[in-house]
Write a sequence for this structure.
């Protein structure tokens, strides 16, 4: 049961809770998670949650008076030898430190957690009887989830449903497969998921919803008789998790939270080509 503190927590307090929910040791070896910058002793009375740390989300966090940003994607994923303010990332580091705002990242450790990123995605679609798509070492953990829809839908109907319940982006939702195929069991994976196409097939899913699907792997998967595919914007597939984290943190510490709805998906335009004209 969550408890509330009478006084504002420190950065260290919030980091300890986040690390207990999303253990850094469960992140992939290539990943960079945990406290990125800031003093553990700084107050963290207002928490800001975002998928991406970019100039626009930092503007929003500082305008809200945040003492700690909780982000999904790492700002500094690859090795750096300088954080001078000569690059946009360096400038963000300087801005945050000057403002007394810390930064924490939970990435692949939040993907594998239970509840984690894909649980929030599954909840948006109303899935029940959840099980991991790619099981982790601990029971119930793993990348992705497989579950049952509240009622069977055709692929066409499910595509429309996903577009309605997921955050709006220019990318939208596209699908591959027979539009009239009936979907009862759905696999989902927040973020890039074409590494789990084989798992979706082995899980007996009728369809697999994820992001960043590529032409050749998708085509080969379908040619082999695999589940139908729904491809959504990367940001939209991970944004639902922020609401879960914000609720847990507010319940634990009684602090104010701001969940960013700024669409940080890089694609900003989408045009549907008109149908071909058929002349007699």
């Amino acid at each position: 049961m969550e408890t509330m503190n009478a006084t504002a927590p420190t950065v260290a307090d919030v980091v300890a809770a986040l690390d207990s929910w999303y253990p850094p040791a469960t992140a992939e070896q290539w990943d960079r998670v945990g406290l990125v910058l800031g003093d553990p002793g700084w107050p963290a009375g207002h928490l800001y949650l975002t998928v991406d740390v970019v100039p626009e989300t930092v503007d929003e966090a500082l305008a809200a008076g945040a003492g700690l940003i909780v982000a999904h994607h790492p700002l500094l994923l690859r090795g750096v030898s300088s954080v001078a303010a000569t690059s946009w990332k360096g400038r963000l580091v300087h801005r945050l430190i000057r403002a007394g705002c810390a930064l924490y990242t939970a990435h692949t450790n939040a993907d594998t957690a239970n509840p984690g990123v894909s649980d929030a995605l599954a909840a948006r679609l109303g899935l029940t009887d959840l099980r991991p798509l790619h099981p982790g070492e601990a029971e119930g953990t793993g990348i992705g989830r497989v579950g049952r829809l509240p009622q069977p839908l055709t692929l066409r109907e499910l595509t429309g449903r996903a577009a309605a319940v997921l955050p709006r982006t220019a990318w939208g939702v596209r699908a591959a497969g027979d539009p009239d195929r009936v979907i009862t069991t759905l696999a989902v994976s927040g973020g890039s998921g074409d590494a789990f196409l084989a798992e979706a097939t082995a899980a007996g899913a009728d369809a697999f919803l994820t992001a960043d699907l590529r032409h050749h792997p998708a085509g080969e998967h379908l040619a082999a008789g695999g589940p139908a595919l729904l491809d959504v914007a990367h940001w939209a597939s991970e944004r639902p998790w922020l609401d879960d984290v914000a609720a847990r943190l507010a319940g634990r510490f009684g602090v104010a939270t701001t969940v960013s709805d700024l669409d940080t998906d890089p694609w900003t335009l989408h045009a549907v080509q008109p149908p071909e004209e058929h002349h007699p």
Q: What stands out?
A: The domain at 114-236 is CATH 3.40.1390.30 (Udp-n-acetylmuramoylalanyl-d-glutamate--2,6- Diaminopimelate Ligase; Chain: A, domain 1). The first helix runs from residue 11 to 21.
